[in-house]
Amino acid sequence: MRGLIDSAATQEHQIALLWKALEELSVAQSKTDCIPSDAAKQESFEAARINQLLD
């Protein structure tokens, strides 16, 4: 179970980094409309809190 939690946290981090890179590329190309307004640009998965629930 903890492995799944860690994996989900890692995936969320990677997705946030991808959105950030896309945002920077779109700004460099003066195309600000390619990033969805609901894109998860920051991490919100609380792996530590979920791990505490398992203890």
What does this structure look like?
- With 55 residues, this protein is mainly α.
- The chain has one domain (2-31, 41-54).
- It contains two helices and no strands.
- Helix 1 packs antiparallel against helix 2.
- The chain starts with a helix and ends with a helix.
- The mean pLDDT is 80.
Encode the helix/strand succession as letters.
Answer: HH
Rounded average pLDDT: 80
List low-confidence stretches: none
Output the structural class.
mainly alpha
Helix content: 55-70%
List the domain count as a whole number. 1
Proportion of β residues?
Answer: under 5%
Structure summary:
This protein has helices at residues 2-28, 47-54. The protein is an all-alpha fold and 55 residues long.
Task: Map the helices and strands.
Elements: H1 2-28, H2 47-54
Helix pairs in contact: 1-2
